[in-house]
Amino acid sequence: MKPRGNGILLHISSLPSPYGIGDIGPAACRFVDFLSSTGQKYWQILPLTVTDPAHDDNPYHSISAFANNPLFISPELMAADGLIDPSDLANPPDFPGSRVDFPAVIPYKEALFSQAYDRFSRSGGIPEYERFCKENAGWLDDFALFSAIRSDRPDQTWNQWPDGLKNRNPAVIEAERERLHEKIDRTKFLQYVFHDQWQRLRTCCNNHGITLIGDIPIYVDHDSADVWRHPEYFKLDGECKPTVVAGVPPDYFSATGQLWNTPVYQWDALKSDNFSWWIQRLGHTLSLLDIVRVDHFRGLVACWEVPAGSASAAGGRWVPVPADDLLTACTRAFPRLPVFAEDLGTITPDVREVMQKFKIRGMKVLLFAFEDGFPDTPYLPHNVIPDCYLYTGTHDNNPVRGWIEEEATADHRARMRQYFGCDIPADELSRAFIRLAMSTVADTVIIPLQDLLGLGAASRMNRPGTCQGNWKWRFTDAQLTTEIRDSLGSMTAAYARD
How far apart are the first and last CA of the chain? Predict the structure, then answer.
């Protein structure tokens, strides 16, 4: 394979589907075929984690660092596998085609899952399921129990549970496993179905020469199976509440910073266990994906700690993390370590030193190229280095067209005019950015599908610092026109990226 290559950034949820949300069934394989036919080498997705309506269905806020999102299970594949009747899919609700209506999708899919689990239970199970449960017991048993207790106590976080549950008294935990065994088994079953369907999608990608790039959120939610199982790995008080929470200071994405309200790691405790939890987590993620982007990589070098209960992230401070020890342990476990860093925002020299020492690539975003500092910004095409992942934009940005129509200042426009040598109409700028990115020396170029389609702000995936209306955008099959296919394939070939 040539070192130069392109790919598309598109989350699973954004795929077309008559069932309200994108899934890992036939539509995903059709998208892989589209990528292959246009000379692409990569498909990048967002975290596959379980989402929660309490967190705006945000894949970066999950109740588990290991479990996968059952909403991505394909009803069509369940029917093909005999888990549900094809007639159950004959008349789905009239879901919107351009966005995910989570309040409508969740009960619809849960009803299908209940039918599938009932049929599976009556069949007596299969050896593959038993093997999956055994191989993944290290996280699956705790996650399934946590989910069952949580659904049984919907108005409580785990630190509000009775002491026997909160502190994991063995006798109390065993009694709860017995009482909630059906909910536990149902959760394990859905994780198995996801795993089985995902392996088929991976085979499809492998057969088409498509490399899967995924994302690992650096932090986990306080109300998660991971913090409940390992409170010693997090900075909590005597009532198991966070003493400090993670975030980032003010930057390009947010003038007041971002307050994530996720607990901060107790790195001394993790180090004393040889970072076994992190290594297990990374290994699990790499079992699903070929390459992993580490979200907020700088948090593995120093964490922006904010006192719990703060109204914003402005009052935080940087606290060092034993990055050298952590990454040394990770490279021992995974000598090739196929990860790269999300190194946007406030990046200090110590972060660059760690990336250089462990040969971890970073990101460049063309949308940042025309900010103050022009023409010396590292994101301008003539300043881009080969050993990086270059994006026109990310899921956290306005698409290029939305940016020029809503956010670009007179200075931005003047700099672009100077760089391009002309004014480019808003409806043509996305394509110009794509061509510019492909023409650089960057080994890897990733294009959000919204930019390929020339879409505006309505297709934006996420607005950092907000907690409503995100993670909903979807495209339709009709939008991948012959013109789009031909143009992408032609540009890819012209810049020797096929």
Answer: 9
pLDDT in tens, 460-478: 999 987 889 999 999 999 9
pLDDT (tens digit per residue) in 171-228 = 999 999 999 999 999 999 999 999 999 999 999 999 999 999 999 999 999 999 999 9
Select from 462, 389, 352 the least CA-distant residue to 55. 462
pLDDT score recorded for residue 327? 98
128: annotated active-site residue: no
Per-residue model confidence as pLDDT tens digits over 156-170: 999 999 999 999 999
Judge whether 396 counts as a catalytic residue.
yes
Of the residues 23, 142, 176, 342, which is catalytic?
A: 342
CB 173 within 8 Å of CB 145: yes
Residue 320: other Cβ atoms inside 10 A: 10
User: In terms of residues, how long is the chain?
Assistant: 498
* In contact, 18 and 88? CB cutoff 8 Å: no
* DSSP per-residue letters across 178-230: HHTHHHHHHHHHHHHHHHHHHHHHHHHHHHTTPEEEEEE-S---SSSHHHHH-
Sheet containing strand 317-320, edge to edge, reads 258-263, 244-248, 302-307, 317-320
To the query of whether residue 226 is one of the catalytic residues in this protein, the response is no
How many CB atoms lie under 10 A from the CB of residue 132? 19
Q: Say which of 295, 387, 405, 498 is annotated catalytic.
A: 295
